[in-house]
Structure formats: structure tokens, C-alpha cells
Amino acid sequence: MSNRAVSYVGPGKVEVIDTPYPEFELKDGPGVNPANVGRKVDHGVVLKTIATNICGSDQHMVRGRTTAPAGLVLGHEITGEVVEVGRDVEFVKVGDVVSVPFNISCGRCRNCKEGQTGICLNVNPDRPGSAYGYVDMGGWVGGQAEYVLVPYADWNVLKFPDRDQALEKILDLTMLSDIFPTGFHGAVGAGVTVGSTVYVAGAGPVGLAAATSAQLLGAAVVIVGDLNQDRLEQARSFGCETVDVSLGNPIEQIEQILGVPEVDCGIDAVGFEARGHGSDAGTEAPATVLNSLMEITRAGGSLGIPGLYVTGDPGAVDEAAKQGSLSMRFGLGFAKSHTFVTGQCPVMKYHRGLMQAILHDKVSIAKNVRATPISLDEAPSAYAAFDEGAARKFVIDPHGMIAR
Ligand SMILES: NC(=O)c1ccc[n+]([C@@H]2O[C@H](COP(=O)([O-])OP(=O)(O)OC[C@H]3O[C@@H](n4cnc5c(N)ncnc54)[C@H](O)[C@@H]3O)[C@@H](O)[C@H]2O)c1
Ligand SMILES: [Zn+2]
Ligand SMILES: [Zn+2]
User: Fold this and answer.
1) Which of 25, 39, 334, 341 has the fewest Cβ atoms within 10 Å of its own Cβ atom?
2) What is the pTM of this model?
3) pLDDT means per 10 residues in the chain (404 residues)?
4) Which residue, among 142, 44, 48, 149, has the nearest Cα to 96 in the 3D structure?
5) Assigned architecture for domain 179-341
6) Fold (topology level) of 4-178+346-396
7) Is the minimum distance from the CB of 275 to ligand 1 under 6 angstroms?
8) Does any ligand 1 atom lie closer than 6 A to the CB of residue 308?
9) Whose CA is nearest to atom 17 of ligand 1?
């Protein structure tokens, strides 16, 4: 069997390559941790990929802001049809159409047992937590490919109840592998509930998913900030208020909207590549969003921080940031008794409930993030368009199974 995949070549460049068809063993290759080479995956399944999305997390690697090696096969947002099951798989069957959480987790360690699947202890020899197609995440091969191996399949995958219905709603359901649960986790972490006022920094797909989630949770007002005008327009298209951070500190615009210069809940959907505010919007200032959320969020409030922060950043603005040390005004957060919720989203906590919300037409996540299907061969140009700030979520459709 042959296989084709999207691979990282070097800063600013990805290409479609021929790559081995998955076997039930983790083979050596770019980014594979030596301690994981030869690992048996009889608990895995092979999926024929139906939909696999390009993410802002991929962009950190593709922009050369990580130590990702050339040749790494990308892709952690995977939805597919099971075409082979490993010897030890009991319940997943060939023909099932499933969503795969981007976190790889074993279901057997202390953290998995406590529902913390984003920091599984058994899948990544480097550190707790793993993902497909990602630097320092153990070397599990990415899913922006025709076929992909999913380990611990009985534990990891979410089966859709009906194949035809799943294919009909695939552009919504594909968001269950990452951004919808991630945005929802950001909103839950920020304490969003009925009547909350919410500020979401970042109008990329994760920010728009967080805004959608805040609406679903009953927020009174959802304000989304960015400097990208098309993305702010996209946020307004489904009822969000917006703040243009290139005009200055968001606090003044928030006061104009709410009558008070604070919100109940703050969400960071930007991460370490944050731009400054106002006249500094042209330059990177990695602590900007964290500091501004502490300023904006009410005393006693929580900050949901799905935006990614790293322990090493070769392209950082200064020496401290190269080690992941940012100039945070932590004393302000302490003074206001803020809670910080960080880390990978434990997708499994949320994906079933959000699937039900999609299947019962309670939410339009694909429309809100402007899901845009493309072929595998269009991936390099979609990466470039996403990097330029296109107000879209690109969904790679390697087998032409998604209706256009
Ligand atoms: N924690 C998790 O589990 C998880 C999962 C998925 C993605 N992520 C992370 O979430 C973040 C967002 O992902 P995405 O796909 O939406 O990325 P994206 O790059 O498409 O969006 C980020 C947006 O932030 C905007 N921005 C920059 N500086 C800003 C500022 N100071 N204020 C407001 N907006 C600002 C950018 O213009 C851009 O539109 C990334 O860091 C990604 O790695 C985390
Ligand atoms: Zn992602
Ligand atoms: Zn585990």
C-alpha cells in the first residue's frame, strides 16, 4: 500500500511526499524519539483519513519557531475511517468512522485515569503529553496523510453513531479532534457560565471556537480581539463584539462595549507569538496577552489559556524568551487572586458532548470558523494562506470524500 503526506521541509516550507503506509509498530524517522523506535502498537488501528485540519500549532513549527526536524510528517487533527485493527483492539471495528483526539494517551497511567489525557505519562519519552506529527511529542507520525496509525485505539477514538450522518456533518465533526474542545476548554477554564462577559484574545480558529463555546455556555457578551480585520469580521458574523488591538490596549474598547473596563472571564487564544498592542502591533511581544488578560479580568476571575507557550523558541525576540521565560506581571494576577488554566486541552473530556451538540444542530462550528475543504496537494498553498492570516480553517480531504 502507498501513502502520501504533508511534510515539514524547513522554515516557511511544506511539501507533499510519499511516505510508508502505517504498520503496527513505530518505525524510526524524523522526530521519532529513539526510545519509541520499535514500539509495538498492536493496540492501534489504521485510519483512512477523511478530514485532517491545518492548525495554528502546526504554524509554530512551519514558521521555524520550534526544533521540528525536516521531514516531519505533520497533522494532529484527524478524522477517519478504520481500515485495519491491531491484534489487541477489542471494540473498534473496520468501517467505523471516528474522531481522534490530538492528544495521544494510554488510558492506563495516573494522569489518564484522572482524565488528564493531555499529559499522559506513557506515550512520550521526552515529557508528559503527546500528539501526532508534532515536535518533542514522541514521534507519532502525523495524520495530514492518506493513512495514519492511531495507538491505544479502544481508548482514544470517538466513534460517530452513523456513517452517512457523519459524512454529512463532517466539516463540523472534524473540529472535534482539536479546536472545538480546545476552545471549549478555554471557556470552561475561564469560568464562562450563563450571563458571563468574556474577552477572547485571538480570532484565529481556536479563538473563534472559544467564542462559539462561550456562546454555547450562555455568556451574555463575547468580545473577540485581534489585529486581523478579516478575522474580526468573521467573529462579528456570528454575534461577537470585536476589539481591534492594533488601535491600542483592548481595555478601552472593552469599556466602550460593556460600560466597565473589565470582563468576568479572559481567554488567551494567541500564545507565544503574540503581537504588541497599538503602535507595538507590528512587533512580537510574547507576554502581551497574558499581561493584558490579568489587567482586564475581574478580581477572582480565571484565565483560560489554550494559546501555546513553549520551553524553547529559537526565533524568540530575546534571550529569555528563547528559554520560554516571559516578562509576565505575575504580581497583578496574584493581587487579583486569578486562576490560570494552561496546557494541552484534554480533548476526551469534551468531545462526546460537543459531538452531540453538533449532531443535534445546537452549534455551527464549521460555519463560525469558515471550514474550507482542500485536497492534499493544495496543502502547501493553504499553509501559506493560513500563515498570511486567512480567516479560514483549512480541512484537508486526502481521498476526495467531502462534498464541496
Ligand atoms: N492548548 C491546546 O491544546 C491547543 C490546541 C490547539 C491550538 N493551540 C494554540 O492556540 C493558539 C491559537 O491557534 P489558532 O489555530 O487559532 O492560531 P492562529 O495563529 O491562526 O491565531 C492566532 C491569532 O492571534 C492574533 N493575535 C496576535 N497577537 C494578538 C494580540 N496581542 N491580541 C489579540 N490577537 C492577537 C493573530 O493575528 C491571529 O489571528 C496557538 O498558539 C495554538 O498553538 C493550543
Ligand atoms: Zn490543532
Ligand atoms: Zn496515560
Assistant:
1) 334
2) 0.98
3) 96 97 96 94 98 97 93 98 98 98 98 98 96 95 98 98 98 98 98 98 98 98 98 98 97 98 98 96 95 98 97 91 95 98 98 98 98 98 98 98 91
4) 48
5) 3-Layer(aba) Sandwich (3.40)
6) Quinone Oxidoreductase; Chain A, domain 1 (3.90.180)
7) yes
8) yes
9) 56
